């Protein structure tokens, strides 16, 4: 089935550094979502993007919906140890089925 | 508290046995979803239901079955026909009142089949 290309696959950074990750697709999506998953837990929604070109912030997190509707990025500024986890992008297909296509995830580790 | 409850958290079964995973939500959401997660991979859709008594296959429905007899509940049965059932299973729900409303997830059930 369809999948999004998410990169990087993993990151190991120092506390206080900024982080950037992105997702690309050959398909057009009408919604981009970014989730964070802690070990053994379900994904938690961080940011939802609904319009091409939209730039949205949630605290230290900023995400953008690409102009072509085929890509999105997530930035985390001034990382802290609790940012550790797996970050997933997800694209929602047109229509109202709610079906999501997920990226493979970016595993973030933060060194205090 | 409103939310999505999956139970049990851990489940162990012998090969050849069917097993049913529970998912209950009290968010009054119309649509519910089952995803499978394998290590190092993104989530893949098994089944989804947008209304009571109706459901559709996702990308990897083979070896699974579901029912949607109540709005609050969407149990998933992993049958003996599923070749690689060991995985982390995630249930999600959303309101359909808004076209692009996002999915909200439960905390998952880790199924181990030996």
Short description:
Chain A is mainly beta and 112 residues long. Chain A has strands at residues 5-7, 10-14, 19-24, 31-37, 44-49, 55-58, 61-65, 71-76, 85-92, 100-102, 106-111. In chain A, β4 and β5 (44-49) form a beta hairpin.
The portion of residues forming beta strands of chain B comes to over 45%
Distance between the termini of chain A: 39 Å
Structural class of the secondary structure composition of chain B? mainly beta
Sheet with most strands of chain B: 7 strands, mixed
Poorly predicted runs of chain B are: none
* Rounded mean pLDDT score of chain B: 94
- Give me the count of strands of chain B: 11
The biggest beta sheet of chain A reads: 6 strands, mixed
Shape of chain A: globular
What's the number of helices of chain B? 0
SSE string of chain A: EEEEEEEEEEE
The structural class of chain A is: mainly beta
State the assembly state of the protein chains: heterodimer
- Rounded to an integer, what's the Rg of chain B over CA atoms? 13 Å
Number of strand segments of chain A: 11
Please give the most extensive interface between any two protein chains, plus how many residues each contributes.
Answer: A-B, 28 and 31 residues
Q: What's the gyration radius of chain A in Å?
A: 13 Å
Helical content of chain A, roughly?
under 10%
Helix content of chain B: under 10%
Write up this protein.
The complex is a heterodimer of chains A (112) and B (114). Chain A is mainly beta and 112 residues long. In chain A, 0% of the residues lie in helices and 53% in strands. Chain A has strands at 5-7, 10-14, 19-24, 31-37, 44-49, 55-58, 61-65, 71-76, 85-92, 100-102, 106-111. In chain A, the strands form two sheets. In chain A, strands 2, 4, 5, 9, 10 and 11 form a six-stranded mixed sheet that branches. In chain A, strands 1-3-8-7-6 form a five-stranded antiparallel sheet, with no helix packed on it. In chain A, a hairpin with a 7-residue loop joins strand 9 and strand 10 (100-102). The relative contact order of chain A is 0.34. By secondary structure, chain B is mainly beta. Chain B is built from no helices and eleven strands. In chain B, strands 2, 4, 5, 6, 9, 10 and 11 form a seven-stranded mixed sheet that branches.
């Amino acid at each position: 089935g369809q999948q999004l290309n998410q990169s990087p696959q993993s990151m190991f950074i120092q506390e206080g550094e900024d982080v950037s990750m992105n997702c690309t697709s050959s398909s057009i999506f009408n919604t981009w979502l970014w989730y964070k998953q802690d070990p053994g837990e379900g994904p938690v929604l961080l940011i939802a993007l609904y319009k091409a070109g939209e730039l949205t912030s949630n605290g230290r997190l900023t995400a953008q919906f690409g102009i072509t509707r085929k890509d999105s990025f997530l930035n985390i500024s001034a990382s802290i140890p609790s940012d550790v986890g797996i970050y997933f992008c997800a694209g929602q297909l047109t229509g109202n089925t709610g079906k999501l296509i997920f990226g493979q995830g970016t595993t973030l580790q933060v060194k205090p | 508290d409103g939310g999505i409850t999956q139970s049990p958290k851990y489940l162990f079964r012998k090969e050849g046995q069917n097993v049913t995973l529970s998912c209950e939500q009290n968010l009054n959401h119309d649509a519910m979803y089952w995803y499978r997660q394998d290590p190092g991979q993104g989530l893949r859709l098994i089944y989804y239901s947008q209304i009571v008594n109706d459901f559709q296959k996702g990308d990897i429905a083979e070896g699974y079955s579901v029912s949607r007899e109540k709005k609050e509940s969407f149990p998933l049965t992993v049958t003996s026909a599923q070749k690689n059932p060991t995985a982390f299973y995630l249930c999600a729900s959303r309101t359909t009142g808004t076209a692009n409303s996002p999915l909200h997830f439960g905390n998952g059930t880790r199924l181990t089949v030996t």
